[in-house]
Design brief:
Layout: H1 9-17, E1 35-38, E2 47-50, H2 60-75, E3 79-84, H3 91-103, E4 107-112, H4 119-123, E5 135-136, H5 145-154, E6 173-178, H6 184-192, E7 210-216, E8 219-225, H7 238-253, E9 256-262, H8 269-280, E10 284-290, H9 297-310, E11 319-321, H10 330-344, H11 350-363, E12 368-369, E13 372-373, E14 375-383, E15 388-394, H12 401-415, E16 423-428, H13 442-456
Parallel strand pairs: 3-4, 4-5, 6-8, 6-9, 9-10, 10-11, 15-16
Antiparallel strand pairs: 1-2, 7-8, 12-13, 14-15
Helix pairs in contact: 11-12, 11-13
Length: 457
């Protein structure tokens, strides 16, 4: 979908995909990158591409956005050109129509914001553009949207993938987050080996959360580029607030998060706050220290010390120095994120959990409380993403935080859960699994092991 700014392309994108993935506001130039999405299941399967508004100007940002639109048109089988009934045909519409005509692709003109108007009257002026018969729609109300989509599908080449099987989503979704201008989009482009998202030495270039498929080693993943996140006290612009909301939504949906830091600035207060938010949501993560190129050995050492000193609670996450600009170690940080995503989804067998719990309490028993020792008798997995381990026993509510951390570290080592938080839930009372077949308590595991050793002798 192409058109001048603020004609409703993102609203139509959200209507066709049945999502709110594209930012929508009464503000020209809101969308900058091209945004891909799958059509709503109620529509025939297709891929829809949202683009930024086209303007005829020599501005650098407009030129970058125009290049993204040109790439989207090259990808597409059919181009939907969106116009605004309320504004009529303006010079920028003629400019967009010229670009669409030169592309050689089939073009459908959609006249938006025609709610309450007779279709023939609404589209009459837009025949002036010299393209095929326009279609009247209201993207915000949904009027005429299905007819527009079916008209576009009818112009699709027979061999096009638009009429084929619905695309399969990636195995894991990896979001790239960080403060503005730390190199998130550059890292995405380096992984894709293409200028897929806008990059510019200016904070706030990315506004949407851009989801992009990536195939590595025969496996398909989804990369999510996000807007830079600053402290809320500094976020005053309404558009930036929308962008931050989209970034936080991407963190919620991701299987793992790459947090990109600036090696030259070290770990800032905003970085620590952002990481705290990610951990609060229970997301797996890995750290990428960007802009590593050009640093002296002393600067590199100080950057690593800054991470260790400021983020001691993040000792379970992998740390990778990278140069997104030059491509150094970018695959390493991506693979670390994939490992973290796998750890977050790991299945922890009940018998193995109880074997580890027995080893833990034997090696280092829980402390005494009121002359009685806290007993931890049974463990099982209570959830994933992140892994939740439920431990039953007596007086568990009195277990100190230090011993909780000890349990987390020992379970992490036993199951090699790198890159993901682990949550422990303590329950006091009888074992709810007692009496069930094929489920052994820690005491039963010990008895079974003794019997096996005796038989071997």
């Amino acid at each position: 979908m192409i058109g001048r700014p603020n004609v409703g392309k993102s609203t139509l994108f959200n209507r066709l995909t049945g999502t709110r993935d594209a930012l929508v506001a009464d503000y020209p130039g809101l969308t900058r990158d091209r945004l891909h999405g799958f059509t709503d299941p109620r529509l025939p399967p297709a891929i829809v591409i949202d683009t930024g508004g086209l303007v005829e100007t020599g501005d650098e940002m407009a030129g970058l956005m125009r290049r993204q639109v040109e790439l989207a048109v090259e990808e597409a089988d059919v181009v939907i050109m969106l116009t605004d009934f309320q504004a009529g045909v303006v010079a920028e519409d003629r400019y967009v129509a010229g670009l669409a005509r030169r592309s050689g692709k089939p073009v459908v003109v959609a006249v938006n914001k025609t709610e309450g108007r007779a279709a023939d009257h609404a589209v009459a002026e837009f025949f002036e553009l010299g393209l095929e018969a326009p279609v009247a729609i209201s993207a915000s109300h949904g009027d005429g949207v299905r007819e527009l989509f079916e008209t576009a599908l009818a112009k699709t080449p027979v061999e096009s993938s638009l009429t084929g099987e619905f695309p399969v989503e990636g195995r894991a979704a990896i979001a790239v987050v960080g403060r503005p201008n730390v190199g998130k989009s550059t890292l995405i482009n380096r992984l894709l080996r293409a200028e897929r998202v806008l990059t510019r030495d200016e904070p706030g270039t990315t506004r949407d959360a851009i989801r992009i498929p990536l195939e590595i080693g025969g496996e398909t993943y989804t990369l999510i580029d996000t807007a830079g996140i600053r402290r809320q006290a500094r976020v005053s612009d309404a558009i930036e607030k929308f962008s931050v909301a989209k970034s936080l939504q991407a963190v919620e949906e991701a299987d793992a998060v790459i947090v990109l830091l600036d090696a030259r600035e070290g770990v800032t207060e905003q970085d620590a706050s952002l990481i705290g938010l990610i951990l609060q949501r229970g997301r797996a993560l890995t750290l990428g220290i960007n802009k590593w190129d050009g640093l002296s050995e002393g600067q590199r050492k100080r950057a690593m010390e800054s991470v260790a000193r400021t983020l001691p609670f993040l000792d379970f996450a992998e740390v990778n120095p990278v140069s997104a600009l030059h491509g150094s170690n970018v695959l390493d940080v991506f693979r670390a994120a994939v490992r973290a995503a796998a750890a977050a989804q790991a299945e922890l067998p009940t018998q193995e959990l109880n074997r580890v719990l027995e080893t833990i309490v034997t090696t280092h028993p829980p402390p005494m409380v009121r002359r009685h020792r806290i007993r931890l008798t049974y463990a099982h997995q209570g959830g994933r993403r992140p892994p939740l381990i439920v431990i039953h026993g007596n007086q568990t509510e009195l277990l100190p935080d230090s011993y909780r951390r000890y349990l987390v570290n020992r379970f992490r080592q036993a199951f090699r859960l790198v890159g993901t938080p682990i949550r422990i839930e303590l329950r006091t009372g009888r074992n709810p699994y007692a009496g069930r077949r094929n489920v052994l308590t820690a005491r039963q595991v010990r008895k079974r092991d003794r019997q096996r050793r005796h038989r071997r002798r």
